[in-house]
Design goal:
Low-confidence stretches: 1-19
Strand order of the largest sheet: 5-6-7
Number of domains: 2
Number of helices: 13
Number of strands: 7
Shape: globular
Distance between the termini: 67 Å
Strand content: 5-15%
């Protein structure tokens, strides 16, 4: 009976078929053109000059994000909300860099000592002027118990996890977050065992508590990392030591240089 009623509603045009979220189409096109895979796919570099040439399309996308109302956002499924916020963070980060491109070697050069680039409220989103910090800490980290977002949001720096070559979409967000996590952890320049010690990106130090709040039943950073033993290329001995919290962990220095193509190429040539 229920199936018959559903069929009748669709025939009458009263139901809407499931379809991909088209809001992020412009962002998808921009990313596919201006984000380039590096080092065997472990990292990416951004063609900011290319983004500059396509500034009108970027502005069109940012305007589309700003046009979403808080009421509409509240009706979305959680995965669509999270994908929206990740894309917004990444797109507005690119916009911020473009406003200063050519005059900065790092995003941290924007704003000087007393005005962090992440604290500047220049983003009209969901009815308020927001900062990048507002989006990441006041919305994403506050509203979603999802540690893998740290491998999806991008701070325009070489030390950051890769800016994905695709927009995040609610319908496939789980697979995208998992892919971003595995990509980052498999990067030997950022994470891996050397001389009996597990070296990790500094972001695991900064956001350690996010990995210890019960995601998939994991209450420690070590448990989270152990679930990605293959990506970290842990031997059976190292994995056992990690689970027992006997494997020493060290956090590497963060490379805050801009993740533009020229800088990334220079870093690669330096070895």
């Amino acid at each position: 009976m229920r199936a018959w009623l559903l069929m009748l509603c669709c025939v009458l045009g009263l139901c809407k078929p499931l379809r991909a979220d088209t809001l992020h189409n412009d962002w998808q096109e921009l990313l596919s053109r201006h984000v380039k895979s590096q080092r065997g796919g472990h990292a990416t570099a951004v063609d900011y000059l290319g983004f500059q040439r396509d500034r009108a399309q970027l502005s069109q996308y940012l305007n589309a994000l700003s046009a979403v109302t808080a009421a509409d956002y509240a009706q979305w499924p959680a995965a669509r909300q999270l994908a929206f916020l990740i894309n917004a963070y990444n797109a507005w980060t690119v916009e911020l860099v473009l406003r200063h491109y050519g005059d900065i070697a790092s995003i941290r050069d924007i704003g000087g000592w007393f005005r962090s680039p992440w604290a500047q409220r220049f983003i009209p989103l969901l009815g308020q002027q927001r900062s990048l910090d507002d989006i990441e800490h006041g919305m994403i980290r506050r509203d979603f118990s999802e540690p893998r977002i740290h491998f999806a949001v991008n701070c325009a720096s070489i030390g950051c996890p890769a800016l994905a070559e695709e927009a995040y979409i609610g319908e496939v967000l789980e697979a995208q977050l998992e892919r971003a996590t595995r990509r980052f952890l498999a990067d030997r320049q950022r994470n891996g065992v050397r001389e009996g010690r597990l070296y990790l990106s500094k972001l695991f130090d900064w956001y350690r508590k996010d990995f210890e709040q019960g995601w998939r039943g994991q209450s420690s950073l070590e448990a989270f990392l152990a679930s990605y033993a293959d990506e970290l290329r842990l031997t059976a001995e190292a994995l056992s030591a990690l689970r027992a919290r006997r494997l020493p962990i060290a956090f590497s220095d963060y490379d805050w240089r801009l993740n533009d193509m020229a800088t990334v190429a220079e870093r690669a040539s330096d070895g």
